[in-house]
């Protein structure tokens, strides 16, 4: 059983590196294109995984698929309205519709 431990560790490290690589955006990855990193990790599980964590993963990465390579914070996206009455543009259009209808009647 003790002889299987290094093999299991290498497989686990390779899976961890592969999942981390696949979860990253193409522009976050350093060194090689994403497809080449996947091949390196699959062909050379131990060395490829170590190379990924040392050379390919973005600097300052804190977790899987999250974090910027240059230390920049991700841009927050404005929340989308949940309903039409929460949408300011829709509410503005309601204010202008009666005027348009009145003008058309004249």
Instruction: Give the helix tally.
Output: 4
Secondary-structure-derived class: mainly alpha
For the biggest sheet, the summary is: none
- The portion of residues assigned to helices is 55-70%
Rounded average pLDDT: 79
Low-confidence stretches: 65-69
Q: Care to count the β-strands?
A: 0
Q: What pattern of helices and strands is seen along the backbone?
A: HHHH
Task: Write the topology of this structure.
Elements lengths: L3 H20 L10 H10 L1 H12 L31 H18 L1
Helix pairs in contact: 1-2, 1-3, 2-3
Characterise the protein shown here:
With 106 residues, the chain is mostly helical. It is built from 4 helices and no strands. The longest helix has 20 residues.
